Amino acid sequence: MCRHCDYKELLKASGLESNSNRIRVMEIVGNSSYPLSAQEISDTIDRTASINRVTVYRILDLLVEKGLLDRISAGDRSFRYGMAPNAHHRHHPHFYCRQCSAMECLSPESVHLDTAFLERTFPGAIEKVEVRLDGICKNCLQKLLK
Amino acid sequence: MCRHCDYKELLKASGLESNSNRIRVMEIVGNSSYPLSAQEISDTIDRTASINRVTVYRILDLLVEKGLLDRISAGDRSFRYGMAPNAHHRHHPHFYCRQCSAMECLSPESVHLDTAFLERTFPGAIEKVEVRLDGICKNCLQKLLK
DNA sequence: CGGCAATATGCAACCGAATTGCATGAATGT
DNA sequence: ACATTCATGCAATTCGGTTGCATATTGCCG
């Protein structure tokens, strides 16, 4: 999906050494068209190398903390990971299918959100805004109709 | 908070028998100014009666399924419960403090969200829209500054 | 180059929130 | 009063994720 991101560069720009695991994680997330679970990321790496799931969790924590990745709450009790907004990735909402638990990225324009007023008046610090639509995805809808 | 809702009526209108546990849950959620965790609801009931947490979970599942309550994902891996939108309760966004895990309800006007385009064009079925802002709440901000 | 500190990784055990299976208890209709 | 249905309790389990601690790997300095 993303031919624009030099993951090594991104890591360095955030003050992180780049090692093969970190780069793999960034690549996998960056190349996905939908936000991935830690499990999916771990499985993908495992296909070529071999990595402990704890290591994956730790890398994800680190990348989220450094602002390279976004941790997105799914409609269930798990998290997904996607590229954090940057020059090549605009912030966008997500759709969660309560039937198959899959998540999709929606286009940045699909939902218009105006938080300006709140940003000015809210007494706390707002760090991120998450918009998630829940329902049944196209696929599951078709299966249900059969 | 809510003097407008006759919980017994609401239950009946959704085709549910009303028993004391269900009414208590509805009252507790309806009277709260912020969305509550199952734990909080369970604890509150326990102060006057005695109830198993599994029962609370089952009542919550039921009330969510019937559309009386909303299950809201917090920024962590847990859920909160609030009144579902109805005549007296407009749909509104929430704020989650990553420091103390507390959630707040934001006013329905605080964020302007336009999903019309998506509702028309999305190939799946959209059942609900969740807007959550994450950050540090006023309280925690003050503590951090000390 | 050797040695040492700092990081990164693996493994096993653990955690919290929620869910399941199954037995018991209450309520409802006939 | 009895059967059927629904609600509750308790124990055990699941699922994602996290922690503690031991071992490897890396970077850095002399």
CATH architecture of chain A: Orthogonal Bundle
Helix content of chain A: 25-40%
Helix-strand pattern of chain A, N to C? HHHHEEEEEHEH
Number of separate helices of chain A: 6
Strand order of the largest sheet of chain A: 4-3-6
In terms of topology, how is this protein built?
The structure is a homodimer of 146-residue chains.
Chain A: H1 7-13, H2 20-31, H3 38-48, H4 53-65, E1 69-73, E2 79-83, E3 94-97, E4 103-105, E5 112-114, H5 116-121, E6 125-136, H6 138-145
Parallel strand pairs in A: 3-6
Antiparallel strand pairs in A: 1-2, 3-4
Chain A binds a DNA duplex (30 and 30 nucleotides) through helix 4.
Offer a few descriptive terms.
alpha+beta, two-stranded antiparallel ribbon, 146 residues, Arc Repressor Mutant, subunit A, globular, DNA-binding
What does this structure look like?
- Two copies of one chain form a homodimer.
- Chain A is globular and about 45 Å long.
- Chain A has a single domain (7-145), classed as Winged helix-like DNA-binding domain superfamily/Winged helix DNA-binding domain (Arc Repressor Mutant, subunit A), CATH 1.10.10.
- The mean pLDDT of chain A is 94.
- Helices cover 39% and strands 22% of the residues of chain A.
- Chain A is an alpha+beta fold and 146 residues long.
- Chain A has six helices and six strands, in the order ααααβββββαβα.
- In chain A, a hairpin with a 5-residue loop joins strand 1 (69-73) and strand 2.
- In chain A, the strands form two sheets. Chain A has a three-stranded mixed beta sheet with strand order 4-3-6. A two-stranded antiparallel ribbon of chain A has the order 1-2.
- In chain A, helix 3 (38-48) crosses helix 4.
- The interface between A and B is large, with 39 and 39 residues.
- Strand 6 of chain A pairs antiparallel with strand 6 of chain B.
- The structure holds a DNA duplex (30 and 30 nucleotides).
